[in-house]
Amino acid sequence: MHIERTHHIDASEPDEDGMHEYYYEYDMYRFTDGALCLVARSYSDEPDEAHFLCFEVDGHRRTMTDRDLTNPLLRAAQTHLHALGKVRLHWLSGRGMGYEAMPPSGS
Asked: What is the C-alpha to C-alpha distance for residues 48 and 86, in angstroms, rounded to an integer?
């Protein structure tokens, strides 16, 4: 598994007081194994949390499904993020509020 981590800031232009209308600081993670890539994001203001967003297959994004929860790449990524202190993991299911808690890595 190859792991790439990039840091991002998405913010509005500061006003005259230096305040932003919006400001998001986060890390993006890309876990790659061959043609398969798993994308996750972790916001800086919630350092113990991360969200799995989607899979990419040969560069084409696809929505995650319940079947992906047992994917070996996702399990390896989950273990890696836990080692970084990211113990609250969620995945973008598109149901309800959009994100669901990840089952424990041993299940």
From this structure: 4
How far out from the chain centre does Cα 64 lie?
12
**66-106 pLDDT tens trace:** 999 999 999 999 999 999 999 999 999 988 778 999 987 65
Say how far apart CA 93 and CA 107 lie, in whole Å: 18
Torsion of CA 50, 60, 3, 24, to 10 degrees: -40
Closest CA to 68 of 59, 84, 56, 86: 56
According to DSSP, the β-strands at 60-62 and 23-33 are unpaired
Secondary element (H or E) of residue 72: helix 72-83
